[in-house]
Amino acid sequence: MSEKNPFSWSAMIFGYSQVGEPLSALNLFSQMHLVPNEYIFANAISVCANLMLLGEGWQIYAQSVKYGYISILFVSNSVISMYMKCSHSSDVLLVYYVALELNDVSYNAIVTGFVEN
Predict the structure, then answer these.
(1) Nearest to 95 by CA among 114, 81, 111, 113
(2) Confidence (pLDDT) at 24
(3) Which end of the chain is more exposed for a tag (fewer CB within 10 A), N or C?
(4) Is the Cβ–Cβ distance between 12 and 46 less than 8 Å?
């Protein structure tokens, strides 16, 4: 690839996560030499959730807060889902209070997570 930009990184990370190569997706994320966009953050956090890698997911979440992406709905929904999948339902309340906007997906993830945990 002649030019690596956020869109190409996002496509590669998403592609790896969808074809059953989640560790390759996280490896790509760690190799990025540019600031990820909201799609990259959401995909990387979802990969961590599916692999139950709470520590790595928390680090990516912290980066998303640093760069101001936690206020984007689908990023905060990814974080909510990660905490619930990793049985850290008490941490969901932190996201709940920080998120500027929640929707039906957010509330569904929260309620389902509390029921399952």
Answers:
(1) 81
(2) 95
(3) N
(4) no
d(CA 51, CA 95): 20
Torsion angle of alpha carbons 43, 8, 69, 96, nearest 10°? Answer: -10
Distance CA 50, CA 84 (A): 11
Distance CA 14, CA 9 (A): 8
Q: What is the pLDDT of residues 11-43, one digit of tens each?
A: 999 999 999 999 999 999 999 988 999 999 999
- Supply the DSSP symbol for 69: -
Q: How far apart are the first and last CA of the chain?
A: 44
Return the number of other C-beta atoms located less than 10 Å from residue 24's C-beta.
16
Q: Average pLDDT over the chain, rounded to whole?
A: 89
- Looking at this protein, which amino acid is placed at residue 102? L
Which residues are CB-contacts of 34 (< 8 A; sequence separation ≥ 6)?
4, 5, 6, 9
Token pair of 20 as six digits: 């059953």
Q: Which of 98, 12, 115 is nearest to 62 (CA)?
A: 98
